[in-house]
Every structure is written in C-alpha cells, then in structure tokens.
Amino acid sequence: MAHDHDHDHHHHETQGGSELSPMELRVRALESVLVEKGYVDPAALDALIETYETRIGPHNGARVVARAWVDPAFRTRLLGDATPAMRELGVGGRGGEHMVVVANTPDEHNLVVCTLCSCYPWPVLGLPPVWYKSPPYRSRAVIEPRAVLAEFGVTLPPTQRIRVWDSTAELRYMVLPMCPAGTEGLDEAALATLVTRDSMIGTGLPRAPGPSA
What we know:
By secondary structure, the chain is of the alpha/beta class. The protein folds into two domains: 19-56, no CATH class; 59-213, Nitrile hydratase alpha /Thiocyanate hydrolase gamma (Nitrile Hydratase, Chain A, Alpha-Beta Complex). It is 41% helix and 12% strand. The protein is built from ten helices and five strands, in the order βαααααββαααββαα. The chain has a three-stranded mixed beta sheet with strand order 1-4-3, covered by helices on one side. The protein has a two-stranded parallel ribbon with strand order 2-5. α3 crosses α4 (72-80) and α7 packs across α8. The longest helix is centred in the N-terminal third of the chain and has 15 residues, at 22-36.
C-alpha cells in the first residue's frame, strides 16, 4: 500500500534518544531467562545476530542496487518482479519471499514503513534498525514523511513527491535509490559500498564517492 505526499507538514517532537524501549527491555529480560534456564545457547544466539548484522547486514540489498545501477536489463526485471530478479544474485529467503522494489527519481522519493508491526526484509537488509520498529516512526512516516526525512538529514526539494509504502507480512518493499553523481568508472563492487541500509529504506541517500572516484 502506498501513500502519496506532496506538501510539507508541521514538525512534531522527535523520538527519544538511545534508551531502550519497553519492548527492547522485555526482549532482553526474556533472553536472560531463556539463557538462564538453558533453552538458548548464548553462543548460538550471538552467531545468529552476527550473521544478520555483519555477514548479511545490508550487503545483499547493496549488491542488488549496484547491479541495477550498471545493468539496465536487470533494473527492468527488478522493478517488474523483484523476487525472481533478486534470486539471480542469490538474494532472498524467509522474510524476503515476496519483494517489491520501488525506484527513486528526481520527481519522486520513496519511503518504506510497516504501520502494523515491523515487517522487514531481513535476508535483504539484515537486522531492522531500532527506530524502524518504533511507534513514532511507524505513525509519523505516513502522516508527515517530509518532516521525518528531515530528521534523518534528508531534505528534499518541495517539488519532489514522497510516496510511502506500507510493508506487510506478505509483501515487503525496498527502495532503489538514485545512483550518486561522480561514479563514472566505478565497478559494481565499488558502487555497492556506496549503498547504505537507510537509502534502501528511504530514510537516507547513498554515500557520495570518494575523491579517488
């Protein structure tokens, strides 16, 4: 489900700092009980988290974006039917079975949220950021997306429309950001390093290439 926004909204209070939310406190407490009772191996839990944070992380999504930047035919397949296109690169799996990729353009910026809970394509983007699961983001992203983006440091021209996509358990979205300027001559691997997790959610932009680029 998409929501269109083409005007600014009043700025509301930003969400709090880095303190743990009630849900995070409950998760920590539950983890402690499970470990204490021997139901969960801490080493196995750490390995699982390490896999999603570093070995998977946003790297899979970044590879998909970089391929779309250099291969117009792949980009067309990705925007037409993302799930099989991603499988061409070995990307997908549980939590990423039904993907839709939406492309940013000079006229339109896309933003992904899950207003119902926190549905997120783990195999593509890794662990979801804490703010993605927070009630303030889930509600305000739809109501005042331009203000939310500004809080993330993304200030868009007033003529650029914002479209908000609401992920569900059955359908999950990823943003295809625009390739930054000055990347001529960079290969696919180098381009992938410019892709950030937030740029694939829509709350950020890709990194600018370094001086050597």
